[in-house]
Amino acid sequence: MSQPIADLAALEALYGQPGAASVAKEVTRLTSGYRALIEASPFFVLATSGPDGLDASPRGDAQGFLRVADERTLLIPDRRGNNRVDSLRNILHDPRVGLLFLIPGVNETLRVNGRAVIDVDPALCDSFAVDGKAPKSVLVVTIDQVFFQCARAVLRARLWDPTAQVAPDRLPSIGALLAEASAGREGGEAYERSLNERIPKTLY
């Protein structure tokens, strides 16, 4: 039988209070250590909220692609994607964002909560150009909270363990996934071949 938790008092009674270190690690600005983690990360997940619900979007590039403007401000180029712009639509509705940074080989992660605006200043966008191609916009994130997350989740997942990697041929292909989701309207081998050829040419 389901036994849902319905109030904060019941939740706190179940889990107890956080340890002193879990509270002390949270700050409202980037420390030198937290900045080092961000600058070493080539990948993060961007969480947003909009009128149609929630979204979590992967963002990645070479280390240092995300620029630390100051201890309270991050600048993030919006690299090419599929033009759904789910995250950007949500930010227009609700500027609150959550970022989860991962660093290959490092078990700790970094969490940033803040507020974002979409900036299309040409000089700013051009400053993030790669191979002469500038992003169409840059997210300017004002930090409200930043703290590291301990290693338990990554260790349990064996995320960086080469022996835990899944062979791609054990899973449905991208073409098969799209064909199934669209009831055959899109996808298939032709789509997959086209995508595999197109992606390396359209990273920026």
UniProtKB/TrEMBL annotation:
Signal peptide: none annotated. It comes from the Bacteria. InterPro entries: Pyridox_Oxase_FMN-dep, Pyridox_Oxase_N, Split_barrel_FMN-bd. Residues 34-150 form the Pyridoxamine 5'-phosphate oxidase N-terminal domain. It holds the Pfam family PNPOx_N. This is Pyridoxamine 5'-phosphate oxidase family protein.
